[in-house]
Design brief:
Blueprint (H helix, E strand, L loop, with lengths): L2 E3 L13 E7 L6 H9 L8 E7 L6 H14 L3 E6 L6 H11 L4 E4 L4 E3 L3 H6 L7 E10 L5 H9 L4 H5 L12 E4 H7 L10 H12 L3 E12 L5 H22 L9 H24 L10 H17 L18
Parallel strand pairs: 1-9, 2-3, 2-5, 3-4, 7-9
Antiparallel strand pairs: 5-8, 6-9, 7-8
Helix pairs in contact: 1-2, 7-8, 9-11
């Protein structure tokens, strides 16, 4: 479970393994044009990368957009393959679909609402030059936000991988920016297809705990990700975090998030109203901080409540314990 960090932001000029970029998509109509533009702008050699974009039973124009993107890619000498996963509604099942169809030595994962920088693949693949590296985690940065919730999440650096890499049980990377050596998957299996959250931690932990493969952090391999813009999206995000906590607790025995009691909530809101709010207001008026800082405590409390709710209302389904095995090992 050794964590190393890539210290050089310049890619190795001679290490260029075949890479399969995998993106699960559910109703990605709004995000896909920007994502596809970013994939087409990658500086990694065209002949050494394939893009597998998996529609997970979308009800919008996602299939049409993917077909058009495949035609555009072909005209530019790129390999982009639209796939479909209709049987299981799970991003992990969609990722498995692409893994089974892939041919790359390295599998790079991102999401439809992400925007990889042009050098993303070069920098994400670079640490694999070391033969003991089986996982590489890239960094996630926020896209500029317009709403207070987006700006709050940006101030909190909510999406950074540094939190997950510092997990007390075992470091892991979110699949918004993660690469895995194919051989590692051949040894431990693929994602649990019936899992709906927490699968990124699960697969990273299986690789690190069951094999000698090590994890490396490529801080300069950046994808930008949009934060949740509405209260409904924010609540859904933190409820999902709660479900992930519960699933990982049942799979690995990791500690659950402490329950947010009414007494603790009252104390935190009282302290915010009597102490934090006046100070934050003065700083905001003086231009020393943004007005978003005024609402940090209430927003954080709402997120903690949603996380607790997600944790309390879920239980790991028996099917979610199943691990799909790699069929195409090249």
């Amino acid at each position: 479970m050794t964590l190393t960090q890539a210290t050089d932001s310049q890619p190795h000029p001679t290490f260029l393994p075949k890479v399969s970029v995998i993106v699960p998509i559910y109703n990605g109509e709004a995000d896909l044009p920007n994502l596809i533009h970013c994939l087409f702008s990658q500086t990694y050699p065209k002949k050494q990368v394939e893009y597998l974009l998996v529609d997970n039973n979308s009800s919008d124009r996602t299939p049409e957009i993917l077909q058009n993107a495949a035609q555009d890619a072909q005209s530019q000498g790129l390999q982009l393959y639209p796939l479909t996963e209709k049987h299981i509604q799970s991003s992990y099942a969609a990722r498995n679909k692409a893994i089974q169809a892939s041919t790359g030595e390295i599998l790079a994962f991102t999401d439809a609402d992400c925007r990889p920088i042009p050098e993303w693949l070069n920098l994400l693949v670079e640490p694999f030059v070391e033969p003991n590296i089986g996982l590489v985690v890239g960094e996630i940065a926020a896209l500029p936000g317009q709403t207070w919730l987006e700006q709050h999440a940006e101030r909190q650096v909510t999406l950074t991988q540094k939190y997950t890499l510092d997990h007390p049980f075992c470091p892991y990377g979110q699949t918004a920016n993660l690469a895995i050596r194919r051989q590692a998957l051949a040894e431990v299996g693929l994602f649990r297809p019936h899992l709906t959250t927490g699968g990124d931690a699960d697969i990273c932990w299986r690789i690190q705990r069951q094999t000698p493969w090590q994890l490396s952090f490529a801080e300069h391999a950046i994808v930008q990700h949009r934060h949740r813009a509405t209260l409904q999206e924010f609540r859904s995000q933190w409820q999902r975090y709660g479900r992930s906590n519960k699933y990982l607790h049942e799979l690995y025995g990791v500690e659950l998030q402490p329950k947010l009691t009414a007494r603790k909530s009252f104390y935190l809101m009282s302290r915010w109203f009597l102490k934090e709010l006046p100070i934050a207001s003065i700083n905001a008026i003086a231009g020393k901080s943004s007005f978003v800082a005024l609402l940090s405590t209430p927003i954080n409390l709402y997120g903690s409540w949603a996380r607790n709710l997600g944790q309390q209302q879920t239980q790991l389904p028996e099917q979610a314990k199943e691990i799909e095995q790699l069929q195409n090992q090249n």
